[in-house]
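One-letter codes give the sequence; each number marks local geometry. A record appears below:


***
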Amino acid sequence: MFIAFHLFSWLTNFFTLRNIMQWSSKWNNTGLIYFAEHQPEKVVYLTIDDFPSLDSKISDRLLNKLSSYNVKATFFVVQYNLKQDEHNSHLFEKLLRQGHELGNHYDIDSPATGLDEKEFEQYLIGTERWIQQFDPDFAEKVPKFFRPPSGKSNEIMSRVLQRNDYLNILGDIYTLDANYDKAPEKHADLIVGNVEKGSIIILHTPEEDKRQKTFDILDSIIPRIRAKGFRFELLSQYFRDETFLDKMDL
């Protein structure tokens, strides 16, 4: 992963992260959304994958970090993680009270591309029902947000997501942070150097034994992105706006 990360970094000398992520869609042609395409203002969207941590204390620390910067984020929930700590119910109440929002990241953080339509829908709705314990209105929101586990999607998943009013959202700012667990400042530099209007930033929930660099990355990127004149908003502020809904016929 060291080689992949540095190759990734080197490519950004010639192309933006947005370009690289868009080109990857040629091999992943499933209607994935990479950024807020028609966002006219300097707005970026922070998203956090694999939430919550297996230890609720770490997730609580993450919420406190974002609160200290007054930044709201979209958290993509993994059902397996959600069930591991009895304190998660209080954690999710705090998350929503602070103004963050939830998205569906599937049952486990493992690709769903090998499932048939019925199986995928079963797991998708199963995670949705868990989320509804904390956000009772989640199922009625149009659209709801889904992030494919491991970033992998296919036409079967796309059909299921569409009929259940989900948008299949990835992002255009991703630095392999889930896999390369070193050099937080280099991750931060890649993020800050590549933000554009409508960028969707992907970071991952820290755990006790990995991804602790997320805290350092946040400390670096939030003030630097703001210094460039950008503000942070929730995905729903763009993707649930009437202009977008009309365009997508949702």
Remarks:
- The mean pLDDT is 91.
- The beta strands are 43-51, 74-77, 101-104, 144-146, 166-168, 199-204, 231-233.
- The radius of gyration is 17 Å.
- The CA atoms of residues 47 and 74 lie 5 Å apart.
